[in-house]
Each structure stands twice: as C-alpha cells, then as structure tokens.
Amino acid sequence: MDELLARGIKSVPVTILGEQVVIGFNPRELAKLFNLSDDVAVADLPTMIEKYETVLTAACRTFRQLPADRWDWESPERKRTLGQFCFHLSDRPDRALNAYLVGVYTNEDRGREVQHILGDVGFEEVAQNVEDVLRRVKAALSGSTLINVDKVLDTYMGRKTAGEMMDLALGHSVHHLKQLYAYMAMMGLEPVDPLGPDDFAGISVPTELF
Q1: CA angle, 202 then 114 then 109, to 5°
Q2: Contact 82, 205 (CB under 8 A)
Q3: Distance (Å, rounded) from C-alpha 114 to C-alpha 126?
Q4: Is the pLDDT of residue 38 over 90?
Q5: Which of 53, 94, 150, 200 is most buried when burial is the number of CB atoms within 10 A of its CB?
C-alpha cells in the first residue's frame, strides 16, 4: 500500500504496468493496457434493465435471510462488516445515478459507509434501500427519468459515459453477490434460490472471486 500511496493512488483494485495505471475493474482500459481488443461490450438497455432486476432482487432476498447477529461479521480477506458489505453491493448503482446528475463520480463515492447514509439499521433496511435503488435504476434506464447513456462523466477511473458507469455498477453488484454467497457458505448458511451462471451471463465481472 505504501507503494500505491507514493504514486498518489488511494484506490484498489488497481493494475500497474510500468508507468501505466488502471484503477478499478475497468475492462476497456485493461484491454488497452495489455494490447487486447478494447471493443468491450456494454450491455444494451433491455439487457441491463433485466439483469439489474434479477441481481438486485436476488440481493434483497438474500439480505432478508441473513441472521441479525451476523451484521458485524467480518470477511477473512477484508476487514469489512457484513452489514457494510451488503449496503455497498447496491451503492455503486446509486452513485452512478448521482454522477449523472452532478457530472462527477469521485473516489469518495465508492466508499460510503452504511451508518452515515442509513443510520443504525439492519439487513431489512438495507434490503429496502436496494429496492429503492432498483426503482430509480429502472426509471433512469427506461422510465420517466430516462438518462442519456452517452453523456460523458468525470470519474476517478477517467472519463466514462453514463452507460459505461451503469454497466460497471451492474458488474460490481454481480461480483459482490457472488462473494456474498461464498461468505454465507463460510458461515454455514445456504442462500434461498441463489442465482447461477445463466443469470450472470453477459455481465462483465472479474474472474477471481476475491
């Protein structure tokens, strides 16, 4: 981490090749870094809406299954409570929508803490927040507050279109839902009606779970 800070980098994950730096899981920029085709597909709007509905609904279902006494459980690979993790799962789509309004997606947007946003809550309140995020996502992608997906935003990863940010946020939620299933297995819990490979098909996520 000291090496990253010396470079002025305060975010992880990060990929460094020589003097070139790619912050976050950013398929298009990673492809450029390694001289691969940078023609990285972004899900079309109907697919994106369908996948958001599937993924965030499954997240709500899973949150409501979690025992209240697991709120402060910490994952072994990262010192983050399960409550914070569950909140974070849907916070990136929320912040992507906010970035569309203000034109900027900052590094601070990616690290908001549940107690500062929702207060002293539990898994049910986090699930309700996810349902609100889903409603706003659907309205932004197909409803009364339809966004211009080609609008360019300034982000901590560089300039991205609104469509790219919504696609990246979807992949972020998928990756964390997969991790949540793994955490539940560590705790001896079995998710009810978990999603599988067919549900995640077409969404860009890291190949490594952790």
Answers
A1: 60
A2: no
A3: 9
A4: no
A5: 94
